[in-house]
Design goal:
The complex is a heterodimer of chains A (114) and B (110). Chain A starts with a strand and ends with a strand. Chain A is mainly beta. Chain A has no helices and 11 strands. With 110 residues, chain B is mainly beta. Chain B has strands at 3-5, 9-13, 18-25, 31-37, 44-49, 53-57, 60-65, 70-75, 84-92, 97-100, 104-109. In chain B, strands 2, 4, 5, 9, 10 and 11 form a 6-stranded mixed β-sheet that branches. Chain B has a 5-stranded antiparallel β-sheet with strand order 1-3-8-7-6, with no helix packed on it. The chains are: A mainly beta (114), B mainly beta (110).
């Protein structure tokens, strides 16, 4: 158990819909990272927040957005969902803003878009 | 763009030693991490190399050569529970961004 929690564990929805994935980092960790893992794209970095502010951006679609709240939990919002958005979404956390910190991954949310 | 290449699959017997290679082409490289992922599970951190050379953690060792843009993960005394996918990941973008390799599926046989 990494100490990172993600809800929900599974999510099934239809194309065109919007969903919100939630992540609570390990106690004391200020950075939250979001990743997408799919069979064809592998494990891809989406975005990082550090202490409430966006710190780094990866291959995140414009239909996706994220935020980190004052209590440091984070939400990833996915809108206008397409079949290709079906994937495993991981959240990870680390103590600082980067520099080689170990990233601790949560159990993931499996999103299925029908 | 950023890319990291690994063999897709490696098979070895219990008790043996196996090496998983990773070559990378990235800009703003800070270091190389290794993660293990069992089927359906979350990636778990194994090691991180910021400098050239070998880092040892129990049965696992990781090596980095920045001049060759190359690293490897060495697993010794293989156990059945080591059967998993192993990912190298380059830390870039000011030390914030992890770009993962394609992953190597390790199968340990009796």
């Amino acid at each position: 158990d990494s100490g990172v929690t993600q809800t929900p564990k599974h999510l099934i929805t239809a194309t065109g819909q919007r969903v919100t994935l939630r992540c609570s980092p390990r106690s004391g960790d200020l950075s939250v990272y979001w990743y997408q893992q799919s069979l064809d794209q592998g494990l891809q970095f989406l975005i990082q927040y550090y202490n409430g502010e966006e710190r780094a951006k990866g291959n995140i679609l414009e239909r996706f957005s994220a935020q980190q709240f004052p209590d440091l939990h984070s939400e990833l919002n996915l809108s206008s969902l397409e079949l290709g958005d079906s994937a495993l979404y991981f959240c990870a956390s680390s103590p600082t803003s980067g520099g080689g910190d170990t990233q601790y991954f949560g159990p993931g949310t499996r999103l299925t878009v029908l | 763009g950023q890319s990291l290449e690994q063999p897709s699959e490696v098979t070895a017997v219990e008790g043996a030693i196996v090496q998983i290679n990773c070559t990378y082409q990235t800009s703003g490289f800070y270091g190389l991490s290794w993660y293990q992922q069992h089927d359906g599970g979350a990636p778990t951190f194994l090691s991180y190399n910021a400098l050239d050379g070998l880092e040892e953690t129990g049965r696992f060792s990781s090596f980095l050569s920045r001049s060759d843009s190359y690293g490897y993960l060495l697993l010794q005394e293989l156990q059945m529970k080591d059967s998993a996918s192993y990912f190298c990941a380059a830390l870039t973008g000011g030390g914030n961004k992890l770009t993962f390799g394609t992953g190597t599926q390790l199968k340990v046989e009796l």
